[in-house]
Amino acid sequence: MAISTGTAVYPKVPFDRVRNWLFDSALPIWASNGFDAETGVCRERLALDGSVEDPGFRRTRALARQIYVYSHAQTLGWNGPAAEIADASLRYLNHMAWQGAQAGWARRLDQQGQISDRAPDLYDNAFALFALGWRYKVTGEACHLERAIETLDFLSTRQRAADGLGFIESPETTGQRIQNPHMHLLEALLVLASCSDHPAFLDEADRIVELFQTRLVDPATGALREIYAPGWGHTDDAQGRSTEPGHQFEWVWILTQYERFKRRDVDATIRALFEFAERHGIEAETGLTFDEVRDDGKVTRGSFRSWPQTETLKGYLAMGERTGRFDHARIAQVIDNLFEFYLATDPPGLWIDQLDENRVGVSTFTPATTLYHLFLAFAELLRLEPQIRAEG
């Protein structure tokens, strides 16, 4: 049976196709070619044909995302070395990239594991927290929680902005504020809050959500700008008016997770974010999500990264779970787009990460960081499969 939307016809939500790609293709290839068994750590990237490609560096954010993927895969019963990969990569990251409570996590290592960039980047520290939270959630080993607490202490004492509004993003971003790393920090804090009773995680999450609602999102339009002036003021230049629909959908999903703790009313914020992204961020012809639009909805970058598509899927799933009514046609369309435009690779389990304005793939390699987006979105779909099927 097919579901019609407009002039196009889409099949029912393809749960089995997603399941097969995830567990039979993606996880195995990244556990073999995508894992450096000699050093015991996940690789940064693969070539488009699945062969090993050495970029000469390892990023903390990339390793942390892979630790998350294989930790989550372990909870879902994947029949592969999920625990071994996650544990080995986290040992490597702890040994090589942790600089102590006064300096936090280094941003980048060279291929031999030596620190090549010591910058205390909020984005990388947020994903280190995310990896630690997931490893603690899966294993219950206290060392992961202790390191997470140390990381948050570092951010609180060394990286908090002078005005108390969020955190210093990186040494290079003086004179501006950036929403994206704060979003991922909130995501990590919610994972830790879900599996520990340490109050600091939710307390910090509350502060980020308050900042988001009072300074970041435009309550009149639902537009979420990417770059701000000091103090989170708005600027009228192109950079200051830039919004990314993928991040709007991503915030919808993350705020829905926050909503479960019943700490602050975020319903109106979620709806405004979703409505702006749905109205302005989607190409009418294909249903693909644009990379960038202006805060008035004008498309300013008509290309299509892969990750905005996965965040669109998560946004629709979150709205369905919140309202009890899933948009089957749109969910099926987003998944169909992922398989048609990004996941039709040989061998399977890889992806084209970037399409240009004409929907032509322009990627020259397959970045490991995207598996975090794909895995989380598909895992959410499979978690909600019983509810979605019950409506079909």
Overall body shape? globular
Strand order of the largest sheet: 6-7-8
The major pleated sheet works out as: 3 strands, antiparallel
Radius of gyration: 20 Å
Distance between the termini: 10 Å
Textual characterization of the structure:
The chain has 13 helices and 16 strands. The strands form 7 sheets. Strands 6-7-8 form a 3-stranded antiparallel beta sheet. It has a 3-stranded antiparallel beta sheet with strand order 11-12-13. Strands 1-2 form a two-stranded antiparallel ribbon. It is mainly α and 392 residues long. 52% of the residues lie in helices and 10% in strands.
List key phrases describing it.
mainly alpha; three-stranded antiparallel beta sheet; 13 helices; about 50% helix; globular; disordered N terminus
Topology:
Blueprint: E1 2-5, E2 8-11, H1 15-32, E3 35-36, E4 41-42, E5 45-46, E6 57-59, H2 60-75, H3 82-97, E7 108-110, E8 115-117, H4 122-139, H5 142-159, E9 177-178, H6 180-195, H7 199-216, E10 227-228, E11 242-243, H8 245-259, H9 267-280, E12 292-294, E13 299-301, E14 304-305, H10 307-323, H11 328-342, E15 354-355, E16 366-367, H12 369-383, H13 385-391
Antiparallel strand pairs: 1-2, 3-4, 5-16, 6-7, 7-8, 9-10, 11-12, 12-13, 14-15
